[in-house]
Fold this protein.
Amino acid sequence: MRGGVERNAEGRPVHAEVRAGDFVIWLHRVAAELNLVSARSMPAASSGLVVYVEDVDAHCERARTRGAHLESEPQDMPYGQREYGARDLEGHRWWFATPLS
């Protein structure tokens, strides 16, 4: 699969690929047989992903209008980027950022 969503015979998503330039982020459904559980089932987040976007404020607004669960609004950070945080439907943490300089 090169991007998109792969579904099983019942039409449920099995895994997906998100592409950012030459990079691929592989996402997989919760699957007990593979020891993959929802982040929501754990007492704390064990990881997060930062994705750089061209315009973090515009990206945040698009995410908001599409029903994203935002954890933080876009803000300038002391380490040189403007970012906001969100969680996906499984509870995984994502941050989207634009460098300030």
About this structure: Strands lie at 4-7, 13-20, 23-28, 48-52, 69-76, 81-87, 93-99. The first strand starts at residue 4 and ends at 7.
